């Protein structure tokens, strides 16, 4: 892929997420809709990162700051970075409304401009599948972490559904056609669904962001102690309460995971 093509694709991705900002928090699976789900997310982050204790965390592609708030909940000093200004506007308003002291910066997750060895933790949710150059991005995240710091990725393969996931998708479609459920609008208004498909077809992980492939690239970027965690069932159970029945089951049977990794000490 040419440099010009990379620039064009990044520009499209930025525009897509900027347009998604207005309805992003309306969708289950993005914003948190219950204290049970919030507790499940907190438990996942505590499992891999421990209590913040005032340590600094950079939440990349923070969007409207859902994960930034989870980090704040468990005691981290948080900087959220996103390159879509409409997302950051909603993030700042949300933090103000909740009286949270979270710092937000506009920036590129693949080139953060943060100083070397400047943060204890780097996190992101549903970012990796959109990366144009994950190898460069992972080296960047390694660079900004302090020795002994931890990375936590939450993502999934949204291209290659399991047989169960395909079955539940068909049942969800039939349920909607029969008027038994309304379905969740996933990509916002108008042509955004086609824009999403077009972007997904051209990013690095166009064939699906499998956990093992992500882990291998992290190790190549210098990370160690790379752990893949598929046990997100508590989060999925809580999220299902806000999805139509079959859509909730479809989501729970996708290849979703958390990956934690560390920057070795000298």
Main sheet: strand order? 3-2-1-4-5-7-6
Question: What proportion of the residues is helical, as a percent range?
Answer: 40-55%
Structural class: alpha/beta
Tell the overall outline. globular
The SSE order reads HHEHEHEEHEHHHEHHE
Per DSSP, the total helix count is 10
Q: What is the terminal-to-terminal distance? A: 36 Å
Indicate the low-confidence ranges by residue numbers: 1-6
Main sheet specs: 7 strands, mixed
Report the radius of gyration as a whole number of Å.
18 Å
> pLDDT average, as an integer?
91
The counted number of beta strands is 7
Q: What share of residues are in beta strands?
A: 15-25%
Comma- or semicolon-separated keywords:
266 residues, alpha/beta, disordered N terminus
In a nutshell, what does this entry contain?
It contains ten helices and seven strands. The chain has a seven-stranded mixed sheet with strand order 3-2-1-4-5-7-6, with helices on both faces. The protein is globular and about 60 Å long.
Please characterize this protein's 3D structure:
The chain has helices at 3-20, 35-49, 66-73, 85-97, 134-144, 163-177, 192-200, 211-220, 233-240, 245-252, and strands at residues 56-60, 77-82, 103-106, 119-125, 145-157, 224-229, 255-262. It is α/β, with parallel strands linked by helices. Strand 1, helix 3 and strand 2 form a beta-alpha-beta unit. Residues 1-6 have low confidence and may be disordered.
